[in-house]
């Protein structure tokens, strides 16, 4: 494990959590959007994470025998998927998007769920900032030993 691997891992997690926060903000912003470009209500989006594999140079060095140990990759966003759960039906015959029975399809976004996910993403972001700062402090103190 290299000197800056912990910083790279924390930075990958910060970037992944930022994407997650962007998607949550998009879900909250469209919580009442009954018509999108395709004519359907907004469908909630979910971020899927996966372990980030090693970089190309790490794999190449392992194959040619220059690296003995494996480095750690961190996390990355694998995909942003749409939630297939059904839309909420609300009776509102005065709404312009109401069907012939007076029901309107609203997005499958639950504000409470989005707020819980937002708090979780925020806490994860804070934890990674703390890990990054501690790693930075350790590296700085290591350099001070040599003075």
Textual characterization of the structure:
The chain is built from 3 helices and 4 strands; from the N terminus they run H-E-H-E-E-E-H. It starts with a helix and ends with a helix. It has a two-stranded antiparallel sheet. It has a two-stranded antiparallel ribbon with strand order 3-4. By secondary structure, it is an alpha+beta fold. The model has no long low-confidence stretch (mean pLDDT 90).
Task: Map the helices and strands.
Elements: H1 5-29, E1 45-51, H2 56-63, E2 75-82, E3 88-91, E4 103-106, H3 111-145
Antiparallel strand pairs: 1-2, 3-4
Helix pairs in contact: 1-3
Which key features would you list for this structure?
alpha+beta; 3 helices; 147 residues; single chain; two-stranded antiparallel sheet; 46% helix; two-stranded antiparallel ribbon; 4 strands
Helices, by number, come to: 3
Alpha-beta content class: alpha+beta
Percent of residues in β-strands: 15-25%
Biggest β-sheet strands, sense, barrel: 2 strands, antiparallel
In short:
With 147 residues, the chain is of the alpha+beta class.
């Amino acid at each position: 494990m290299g000197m800056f691997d912990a910083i790279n891992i924390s930075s990958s997690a910060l970037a992944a959590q930022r994407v997650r926060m962007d998607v949550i903000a998009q879900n909250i912003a469209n919580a009442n959007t009954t018509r999108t470009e395709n004519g359907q209500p907004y469908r909630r989006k979910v971020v899927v994470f996966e372990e980030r594999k090693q970089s190309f140079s790490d794999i190449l060095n392992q194959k040619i025998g220059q690296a003995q140990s494996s480095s750690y990759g961190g996390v990355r966003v694998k995909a942003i998927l749409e939630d297939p759960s059904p839309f909420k039906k609300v009776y509102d015959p005065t709404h312009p998007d109401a069907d012939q029975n007076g029901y309107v399809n609203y997005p499958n976004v639950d504000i409470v769920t989005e707020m819980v996910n937002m708090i979780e993403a925020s806490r994860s972001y804070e934890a990674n900032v703390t890990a990054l700062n501690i790693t930075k402090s350790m590296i700085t103190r290591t350099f001070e030993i040599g003075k």
